[in-house]
């Protein structure tokens, strides 16, 4: 099966919508069970950690604007490098700025899922 960049762009938009609406069920479908994600402090989180932060309200997305997306496809794997402007509330502390996310998408079980990635602020 041949995949397209548009599929990844659509998956990134589904992720954006799920994060903005705190749709934990949609996030559960977009995150692979084996997710390994490194945050800006170097902490590694998995799928359940990510879902828990949204379900508990510890992380609340206020604004999420995609500024630029670069996609590279390699069969059933895709890499998306996304420049984003975010406003979030983390543990009741507002945080805002531009960030660069690298997400590794895997086509598994008939859908694209994030299996790995990292992010950091753009300084």
Determine and state the CATH class. Answer: Alpha Beta
Number of DSSP-assigned strands: 6
Low-confidence stretches: none
Number of helices: 3
Roughly what percent helix?
Answer: 25-40%
Radius of gyration equals: 14 Å
Tell me what you see in this structure.
The protein has 123 residues and is α+β, with helices and mostly antiparallel strands. It has one domain: Nuclear Transport Factor 2, Chain: A. 26% of the residues lie in helices and 54% in strands. The chain has a 6-stranded mixed sheet. Strand 5 and strand 6 form a beta hairpin. The protein is globular.
Provide key terms for this protein.
54% strand, 123 residues, alpha+beta, six-stranded mixed β-sheet
What secondary-structure arrangement, pairings included, does this model have?
Elements (H helix, E strand, L loop, with lengths): L4 H16 L3 H7 E8 L5 E2 L1 H9 L3 E16 L2 E14 L2 E16 L2 E11 L2
Parallel strand pairs: 1-6
Antiparallel strand pairs: 1-2, 3-4, 4-5, 5-6
Helix pairs in contact: 1-2
Provide a brief overview of the structure.
The chain is α+β, with helices and mostly antiparallel strands and 123 residues long. It has a single domain, classed as Nuclear Transport Factor 2, Chain: A.
